[in-house]
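Q: Here's a chain of 272 amino acids. Please give me its 3D structure as tokens.
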Amino acid sequence: MTIAAPFLLLNRTLLPVDEAGITPADRGFLLGDGLFETMRVSNGEVPLLDRHYQRLRHGCALLRLPPPALEDMRHDCHTLLEACTLHEGSIRFTLSRGPGPRGLTPPQTPQPTQLLTASPPPRTTLAPVRVRISTHRRDALSPLCQVKSLSVLPAILARLEAQEQGADDALMLNHHGSVTEASAATFLAHDGTQLITPPLHDGVLPGISRARLLEAGHCNERSLTNDALATLPAAWLVTALSLTPIIAIDDHPLPVWENETERLRQFLYGLS
């Protein structure tokens, strides 16, 4: 079980966790009106902060939110990690539109709420997972597929559905039947020849680890149909924090490719 760090930053103010609070009128709480980024902490630093910031800026432009300054984020991450004496783990930046009047229409001049929280790494290595094809679909035409929105109810429902069926996570298709991603992770697979991951235009979040694998030539983009899943020899779930082997997709068992798993973990996180 991962236990949260004792301090957080709320609107750039360092506070003990049990002293923090937001207004009941906050649109992030009421409407899911906001964004977040979860970032890996290594050696007391956030090594991929710039990449996460660029995705956050894109999301802010889509939601018409004023973005924070990169140097402010960098300073705040350092402040929180130092206060929590955290050297390894993760840090999450949450940005909501802040308080607003009743209803959907945002305030003309938003006063965003910023929340920065930190967590140590899990005490044990994540076990391989079983996934189920979800009945919930991702809308490949929605621009929200491209950002880390606070509105993640479809993913929550997909995860719950999978767990009710005895699996650990859900694999979501788009409305054309192409594979997109898991409820909160990039889908990475081996087709017997190369590593592949679904393309962004199928409704996939532009994951940070996903981009790094593509840039380094470790995998290629290719659309995958539901039927193709039964022919895959290996697959993984990938996030900014972890790479987890998949041991079954519905009733199709998969072996754990330990050497490939170690190679990918070493590239992404400096871990085997």
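Q: Can you summarize the key feature?
A: The chain has two domains: 7-119, 129-269.
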